[in-house]
């Protein structure tokens, strides 16, 4: 029988993969794992516990927060605060970043930006959702309170990034810049186990993922590409399949495994698109590039976009190299 490798064993084996490795980053990842297991437990019983449905609060972007969003946010923040390896966090659910004001956390070398429950409008209908995280080394001095500048770094500065998908099974996928590895939660032992070593996105694919309801508001290059996806051409295996869950983590996870392109472009209604650079696009771009794919705004590499605000949005195109390059040729 093949020996199962747990995430903890994997991290110990690959300690040298962690930039500036002295164990803190591994412990930080472990904090994420703990919080994700708690969130997973709640997500799994969302229909049972009286936790479904919207709160009356709106977050900074005017979206109604779901109770599970708040629950997930609280648990991830608590894990980071108690862990002591992060000096501050920024999340989709908080207008401003939160700097931890205790002596241990102030010595933390890292800041974490995260979306606690992405795709949360899908919670009520039992569709896959996810957590996305991005880790940076702080810029401010150790021992002081973290500052906003600690977060406003380019995606190229990320030291680790990943996502957890709460799907038909729960998986953690992450990178520290040495490839991408995926772990599936075995509920019987409560451990993430290595199930998808060294993930690579196929160079080509047959899936395009976009909210085509917005197509009328997109620039011509995007419209041309979507027309191209639907054209019949046996040699290039078109028409492609349209697959759009509306949960970024699930759409990207599928395309990462099967090959495909994910597009959330700028529209005349949303000039910068919808997705957030800091805690949605940069971490997914890091994973995509580490898996051999491409991540661009259409104009430049996502990870080279200057970071100007915690909730900054950017047009997002991610996926198989040949598909993204084809789209870029039309812009
Ligand atoms: P959220 O962070 O508020 O959940 O929004 C992000 C989600 C992504 O998961 C998904 O790709 C996108 O919004 C879907 O948006 P739309 O409904 O406009 O297609
Ligand atoms: Mg989100």
Quote the average pLDDT.
92
CATH class group of the largest domain:
Alpha Beta
Helix content: 25-40%
- Could you state the order of secondary-structure elements as H and E? HHEEHEEHEEEEEEEHEHEHEEH
Strand runs, count: 15
Distance between the termini: 51 Å
CATH-defined architecture of the largest domain: 2-Layer Sandwich
What is the strand content? Answer: 15-25%
CATH fold name of the largest domain: Fructose-1,6-Bisphosphatase, Chain A, domain 1
Q: Could you name the ranges where pLDDT drops below 50 across 5 or more consecutive residues?
A: none
Largest pleated sheet: 8 strands, mixed
Biggest β-sheet: strands ordered side by side in the sheet:
4-3-5-6-7-8-9-10
Number of helices: 8
Can you tell me the overall shape?
A: globular
Ligand identities: 2,5-anhydro-1,6-di-O-phosphono-D-mannitol, magnesium ion
Write a structural description.
- 28% of the residues lie in helices and 23% in strands.
- The chain contains eight helices and 15 strands.
- Helix 2 packs antiparallel against helix 3.
- With 331 residues, it is of the alpha+beta class.
- The longest helix is centred in the N-terminal third of the chain and has 21 residues, at 24-44.
- It has helices at residues 7-13, 24-44, 67-83, 103-106, 220-230, 248-258, 277-290, 321-328; strands at residues 54-58, 64-66, 86-91, 98-99, 110-118, 129-137, 160-166, 170-175, 180-186, 191-196, 207-209, 241-242, 261-264, 294-296, 316-319.
- The protein has two domains: 7-196, Fructose-1,6-Bisphosphatase, subunit A, domain 1 (Fructose-1,6-Bisphosphatase, Chain A, domain 1, 2-Layer Sandwich), CATH 3.30.540; 207-328, D-Maltodextrin-Binding Protein, domain 2.
- The chain starts with 6 loop residues before the first helix and ends with a helix.
- The strands form three sheets. The protein has an eight-stranded mixed β-sheet with strand order 4-3-5-6-7-8-9-10, sandwiched between helices. A five-stranded mixed β-sheet has the order 12-11-13-15-14, with helices on both faces. Strands 1-2 form a two-stranded antiparallel sheet.
- The mean pLDDT is 92.
- The protein binds 2,5-anhydro-1,6-di-O-phosphono-D-mannitol and magnesium ion (MG).
- The site of 2,5-anhydro-1,6-di-O-phosphono-D-mannitol has 13 residues, from strand 5.
